[in-house]
Amino acid sequence: MPTKTVDDTRSSLLQVLLDKVETEPYPSATMLDFIESLLKPNEVPDYVDQLVERVRADTYPSIDMLRRILKFV
User: Fold this and answer.
1) Alpha helices (H) along 24-62
2) What is the pLDDT of residues 14-66, one digit of tens each?
3) Torsion angle, CA of 26/33/19/39, rounded to 10 degrees?
4) How crowded is residue 10: how many other Cβ atoms within 10 Å of its Cβ?
5) Rounded Cα–Cα distance for residues 43 and 46 (Å)
Protein backbone atom coordinates (compact mmCIF):
# COMPACT_ATOMS: atom_id res chain seq x y z
CA MET A 1 0.00 0.00 0.00
CA PRO A 2 1.53 3.37 -1.00
CA THR A 3 2.12 5.88 1.74
CA LYS A 4 0.27 9.16 1.75
CA THR A 5 2.24 12.26 0.95
CA VAL A 6 1.78 15.63 2.58
CA ASP A 7 0.06 16.81 -0.60
CA ASP A 8 -2.35 13.86 -0.46
CA THR A 9 -3.27 14.84 3.08
CA ARG A 10 -3.65 18.50 2.06
CA SER A 11 -5.89 17.50 -0.84
CA SER A 12 -8.01 15.24 1.38
CA LEU A 13 -8.50 17.91 4.01
CA LEU A 14 -9.28 20.52 1.38
CA GLN A 15 -11.92 18.29 -0.21
CA VAL A 16 -13.56 17.54 3.15
CA LEU A 17 -13.78 21.27 3.91
CA LEU A 18 -15.08 22.12 0.43
CA ASP A 19 -17.76 19.45 0.78
CA LYS A 20 -18.81 20.88 4.13
CA VAL A 21 -18.94 24.43 2.76
CA GLU A 22 -21.09 23.23 -0.12
CA THR A 23 -23.75 21.91 2.27
CA GLU A 24 -23.58 24.67 4.87
CA PRO A 25 -25.94 27.60 4.26
CA TYR A 26 -23.59 29.95 6.13
CA PRO A 27 -20.07 28.52 6.29
CA SER A 28 -17.89 29.90 9.02
CA ALA A 29 -15.17 32.41 8.27
CA THR A 30 -12.73 30.08 10.01
CA MET A 31 -13.57 27.19 7.69
CA LEU A 32 -13.20 29.46 4.63
CA ASP A 33 -9.88 30.73 5.99
CA PHE A 34 -8.65 27.14 6.31
CA ILE A 35 -9.71 26.37 2.75
CA GLU A 36 -7.96 29.46 1.43
CA SER A 37 -4.77 28.53 3.27
CA LEU A 38 -4.81 25.08 1.62
CA LEU A 39 -5.56 26.17 -1.95
CA LYS A 40 -2.99 25.82 -4.67
CA PRO A 41 -3.13 28.39 -7.49
CA ASN A 42 -4.77 25.94 -9.90
CA GLU A 43 -7.57 25.27 -7.35
CA VAL A 44 -8.51 28.92 -6.86
CA PRO A 45 -10.83 29.26 -9.89
CA ASP A 46 -13.09 26.39 -8.75
CA TYR A 47 -13.22 27.78 -5.22
CA VAL A 48 -14.06 31.28 -6.44
CA ASP A 49 -16.76 29.82 -8.71
CA GLN A 50 -18.29 28.14 -5.68
CA LEU A 51 -18.32 31.46 -3.81
CA VAL A 52 -19.77 33.32 -6.80
CA GLU A 53 -22.59 30.78 -7.02
CA ARG A 54 -23.39 31.42 -3.37
CA VAL A 55 -23.52 35.16 -3.98
CA ARG A 56 -25.70 34.63 -7.05
CA ALA A 57 -28.17 32.50 -5.08
CA ASP A 58 -28.38 34.83 -2.09
CA THR A 59 -30.70 37.84 -2.10
CA TYR A 60 -28.44 39.63 0.35
CA PRO A 61 -24.92 38.21 -0.06
CA SER A 62 -22.58 38.64 2.86
CA ILE A 63 -19.95 41.34 2.68
CA ASP A 64 -17.37 38.77 3.84
CA MET A 65 -18.21 36.52 0.88
CA LEU A 66 -17.88 39.43 -1.55
CA ARG A 67 -14.54 40.42 -0.01
CA ARG A 68 -13.26 36.87 -0.33
CA ILE A 69 -14.11 36.84 -4.03
CA LEU A 70 -12.52 40.23 -4.58
CA LYS A 71 -9.34 39.03 -2.91
CA PHE A 72 -8.85 36.55 -5.77
CA VAL A 73 -9.70 38.77 -8.73
Assistant:
1) 29-38, 44-57
2) 999 999 988 998 899 999 999 999 999 999 999 999 999 999 999 999 999 99
3) 150
4) 14
5) 6
